[in-house]
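HUMAN: You are asked to prepare a plain-text protein record giving the amino acid sequence and the backbone structure tokens, both parts labelled.

ASSISTANT:
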Amino acid sequence: MTVAEYNSCVDQYADALFRFVVKNLKDSDAARDVVQDTFEKLWLKAEQVDFQKSKSYLFTAGYHTMIDKIRKEKYSAVMEEHHEEFVQTDNKYSDLKKILNKALETLSEIQRHVVLLRDYEGYSYEEIGEITGLNESQVKVYIYRARLAMKNYLGSLENVI
């Protein structure tokens, strides 16, 4: 990968990677750190990573970096329980967004990851499997169960709106 291709990766994928990580960590500063670490990993392996596969590499490395950060914070007890005061949104449907975020919080960690990768980032089941290390049928099961859990949490659409 050339320097120009690396810069193109930063331009094309940094925002999407940040959205994915911040949705899971719920801390924009920590998400920025994960994204920066991920791009650093790409830079260090730029000669080995094909430009055509850079998006997959970035999301896989970002996912693993995020998991490492979560595990590290669990042991250091630095993580705070309430982050809602720090989350800002310009979306005028903020109440609906809060409800959906709370529904996502009820999911297990892996369910939340696969749902966000599929529904929020638009990855295929195969790509999600590559990123998370699961096989395609496991991805489908986790997504189905996550959607069912969210449906049960939210109830009917009329209750949400």
